[in-house]
């Protein structure tokens, strides 16, 4: 069920960027673990990875975040510090505050957990051409969330640079970072 969505998202991503502005990304307002707001202005000046997921994800989220962590760890610390990663939880009912931040930091000390209201998340998901669907029909507490699995790499100006999936080898991510850092 997830593979057709990933294929569709990949096709959209492969369309490229227009000269008059990004087709992936845009304004957003979310909330950090401490409750403070965060906007697209946080992308300015650093290369930023953005990943949409949820902390109870059993497979693609931990795989993607571990892959990115491996890619970053292959680089010198000074270059790692020129990047940041936002793990955007699409499940704000379960992912909040310290638990969300702890989950992100489990993978790498530069990862930041953020979330927001359903409306804020939906707006950002749409801007990034991502996807998610929460299914509480089986169990309102232990429900699955179907979602796209794409690591978006945004430039220091907040514009789309590249993307990677949970199947991308860490070396490919490291190589791309070395090209642009």
Describe the structure.
This is Protein SCO1/2. Cu cation binds at residues 57, 61, 147. InterPro entries: SCO1/SenC, Thioredoxin-like_sf, Thioredoxin_domain. The protein has helices at residues 2-13, 60-73, 77-80, 97-107, 118-127, 170-180, and strands spanning 29-32, 37-39, 47-53, 83-89, 111-115, 132-134, 145-147, 150-154, 160-165. Residues 2-12 and 14-18 have low confidence and may be disordered. The longest helix is centred in the middle third of the chain and has 14 residues, at 60-73. 34% of the residues lie in helices and 24% in strands. The chain has 181 residues and is of the alpha+beta class. The chain has a single domain, classed as Glutaredoxin, CATH 3.40.30.10. Helix 4 links the parallel strand 4 and strand 5 (111-115). It is globular, with a radius of gyration of 15 Å.
């Amino acid at each position: 069920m997830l593979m057709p969505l990933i294929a569709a998202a990949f096709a959209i991503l492969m369309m490229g960027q227009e000269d008059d502005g990004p087709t992936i990304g845009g304004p957003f307002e979310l909330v950090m673990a401490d409750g403070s707001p965060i906007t697209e202005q946080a992308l300015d000046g650093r290369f930023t990875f953005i990943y949409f997921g949820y902390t109870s994800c059993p497979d693609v989220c931990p795989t993607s975040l571990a892959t990115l962590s491996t890619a970053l760890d292959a680089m010198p610390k000074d270059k790692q510090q020129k990047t940041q990663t936002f793990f955007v939880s699409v499940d704000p009912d379960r992912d909040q505050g310290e638990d969300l931040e702890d989950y992100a930091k489990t993978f790498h000390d530069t990862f930041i957990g953020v979330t927001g209201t359903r409306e804020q998340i939906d707006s950002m998901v749409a801007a990034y051409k991502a996807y998610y669907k929460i299914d509480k029909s089986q169990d309102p507490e232990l429900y699955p969330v179907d979602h796209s699995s794409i690591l978006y790499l945004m430039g220091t100006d907040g514009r789309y640079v590249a993307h990677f999936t949970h199947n991308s080898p860490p070396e490919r991510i490291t190589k791309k970072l070395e090209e642009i850092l």
